[in-house]
Design a protein that fits this description.
This protein is mostly helical. The chain contains 14 helices and two strands; from the N terminus they run H-H-H-H-H-H-E-H-H-H-H-E-H-H-H-H. The chain has a two-stranded antiparallel ribbon with strand order 1-2. Helix 1 packs antiparallel against helix 7 (158-180), helix 3 (61-78) runs antiparallel to helix 4 (83-105) and helix 3 packs across helix 10 (205-231). The radius of gyration is 20 Å and the shape is globular.
Length: 324
Amino acid sequence: MSGLFDSKLAWGALLLLAIAFPWIAGNDYFLTVMSTAYIFAIATLGLNLITGYTGQLNLAHAGFMAVGAYTVGILTVDHGWTFWASLLMSGVVCVALGYVIGIISLRLKGHYFSIFTLCVGYIMFLVIEKWEGLTHGTVGIMGIPEPEAIGALTFDTPLRLYYFVLCFLVLLVWVKRRIVKSLLGRTFIAIRNSDELAEALGINLMRNKVLAFMLSVFYAGIAGGLYAGFVRFIGPDMAAVHHTFDMMIFAMVGGMGTVLGPLLGAIGMPWITQYLQFLQEFRFIVFGPILVALVIFMPYGVVGSFMAWRTRRATKEGKAHAAD
């Protein structure tokens, strides 16, 4: 079912739109909002790998994003590392931590796994907030340097930072599409559909679940590192669980278990909240029912529901042709 949402033409159109966005936006504020949305889109793509494709709800995802951000902040500010080396380490640290936590937590199933990761996420928040000697505590880390220039290419303006973040988003979307279309991606989907059936087919459940977990938190770590280099200040609030729930909403609205759905959700939802700011404290009263309606009437998200509709339509057309 390649269809509209999986065609090279559609992805090319989205890329061209992203490249042209600075000229459409017209000001630095909109560039900042979109760049931040791109960073959270990267983290959301990672969450979708473990939740949408493997069926494991990781509620510590924001904690891993914070670990990536603090890795960059600590290494650059306190130890004089370059941003690029620190960004690489943000992914490595999260993968190593993800391996240890994954080995322990993925022995649990269903809501037990989710509760365990919720506790892990809270522990991450407490460590970041209380370990002042390492993380600077509640003060946070300020003065994180911007990415160093590559030759004549610098990253010292909102426009250049926008394209800097966009390049990482495009690269990681491409990597994720390669993963989900590979045998590994089909293995993840088999595990999501049924542990017992996947095991009967000879799939090593623990190994593949841990691998999915590590890939997922790698995305979170890189997103956190990019966020640190983009905003140049980080605090313990980055590890708060509400950021994980935000990313869950992005993925659910766009469509769990798809590549494009979480991407569109993570980019579109922040703009909806921006335009509801005029309602101030009442905006969630409007926003809440909208989310409920989407869950009721489009349970697979915007992209997922459209793809399901296309499948049903193609099936009906196939039956009609067979009857003729």
